[in-house]
Amino acid sequence: MIPRHFQIAISFLLLAILIAGIFIIELRHSEEVKTQQGLAAAPEGPEAQGKEETIRVLVAYDDDLALRWRTTQAFMPDERDLRARAALRAVLAQYLQTPSPHPLAKGADIKDVYFLNPDTVIVDTTAQFADGHRSGALLEEMTLTSLIETLNANVSGISKVKFLVEGRERQTLAGHADLVSFYPVSAVHELAREFQ
Amino acid sequence: MLWSKRVLNAGTAGAVLLCLLCGPGAVSQIASSGPATAAAPPATPSPTPAATGKPPAPEFFVLIDPSHGGDDKGAVLAPKIFEKDLTLSLARLLRKELEERGISARLLRDSDTTISLEHRAELCNQQHEALYIALHAAEPGRGVRVYSSILAAPQPAVGSFLPWESAQSGALARSNAVARSISRELQKRDFKTLELQAFLRPLNNIVAPAIALEMATDRADVKSLLNSKVQSAVAAAVASAVEQNRERLGARR
């Protein structure tokens, strides 16, 4: 015979597990809804090209300072540069929605992406992307890591990434994160793991 | 021996490869002519005499960089609360804590002065400090974040020149060790810490062991960062970690 106080304790435990499970499912659902809503908040730009695909984007969450992989729908062209731009814009769309997990300034966008050589890519951003970015070492690192990892996940063969702002080199994104150097994708991948 | 900045050649995609020339006899030239000789932008005001002035730096000292300053306010933590002011007050406390432990310390700026990131790195490399500590403060989160550098595949030195973008490569192991010590000391004092290797300027450009600290706050709790007891506790933890690493840091001399 199981003592009554054990029965009560186990009942409470099971109830707590059940509530936690429901809470996690609800949380996951709401985040997926937000991810889908990100499509509607996509940066304005030319008509989408390519066929619609489900792609993985690494999204920054300010609430718990984490980066998490999410899936979203995006029109993905076959050309590498256009494909890279589409992937980057898909992750920016996550940040431009309301509420945003990691707000960026309105007008933050990717102007152009071009390959210096098959493994080195230059990402040209709008002025609003950098000028309107909140200042802070971690916030800036999270933005760049999210973009580089998303790029790496959706366009193969990239080993180095560099960011420009309106076609010009800038020292930092918003006072902290380096925009002068070429970011080695392998090192960024390690950094991203620290955030997950 | 002193490092001065020279342009070696143009790098990939027009990026200028700025290098550090190591050579004896350059000390008096740079110390006497000040920062203007180090290719500083003309508009950049002179940094504090604490960074460049005489007497010459002691054998072992820590160079504390209160990040931002002047026109560069850094993060705006609340109306009229700027990162640049917080970093300066923390820097002064850190200097005091280090000096109480018998460790010389200098501030890269001791007033509200604008110094560019490139110029900060130049000044550091001229000073030949045992350790460079950059201070930051920003949202969001709690506690203190401790950063050391991530280097892209370090480029090899060309003779006595070091590539500007990976000047930190020779000191990175010591930077990481100090960062770990600082994290441990902060944790002992109940600070939440996050230790990361990150792409922060100007860490990569500094020859000496170099780390950056970021005091973190949520918007609702900004006042806690202004609390002198909190700042003193952070400064004491950092100073204690530096003291523990004194031998490791001094070993390069």
Describe this structure in words.
The complex is a heterodimer of chains A (196) and B (253). Chain A is 45% helix and 22% strand. With 196 residues, chain A is α+β, with helices and mostly antiparallel strands. In chain A, a hairpin with a 2-residue loop joins β3 (110-117) and β4. Chain B is built from 8 helices and 11 strands. Chain B has helices at residues 27-33, 49-52, 83-100, 117-127, 172-188, 222-226, 228-244, 246-250, and strands at 2-10, 16-23, 61-66, 76-78, 81-82, 104-107, 131-138, 143-149, 161-163, 193-198, 210-216. The termini of chain B are close together. The chains are: A alpha+beta (196), B alpha/beta (253). The A-B interface holds A 62-63, 65, 116, 120, 122, 134-139, 141, 144, 160, 162, 169, 171-172, 175-178, 180-184, 187, 190-191, 194 and B 12-13, 15, 67-68, 72, 74-76, 83, 116-118, 136, 138-141, 145, 147, 150-153, 165, 194, 196-201, 204, 212, 214, 216.
* Unreliable sequence segments of chain B: 1-46
Main β-sheet, spatial strand arrangement of chain B: 6-3-7-11-8-10
Order of helices and strands of chain A: HEEHEEHHEEH
Number of helices in the DSSP assignment of chain A: 5
Global geometry of chain B: globular
- Count the beta strands of chain A: 6
As a percent range, the share of helical residues of chain B equals 25-40%
H-E order of chain B: EEHHEEEHEHEEEHEEHHH
Strand portion of chain A, in percent?
A: 15-25%
Total helices of chain B: the number is 8
* Poorly predicted parts of chain A: none
Assembly state of the chains shown: heterodimer
Largest pleated sheet of chain B: 6 strands, mixed
Secondary structure class of chain A reads alpha+beta
**The CATH superfamily title of chain B:** Zn-dependent exopeptidases
Question: By helix and strand content of chain B, what is the structural category?
Answer: alpha/beta
CATH architecture of chain B: 3-Layer(aba) Sandwich
Spatial gap, N to C terminus of chain A:
46 Å
| The CATH class of chain B | Alpha Beta
- Strand % of chain B is 15-25%
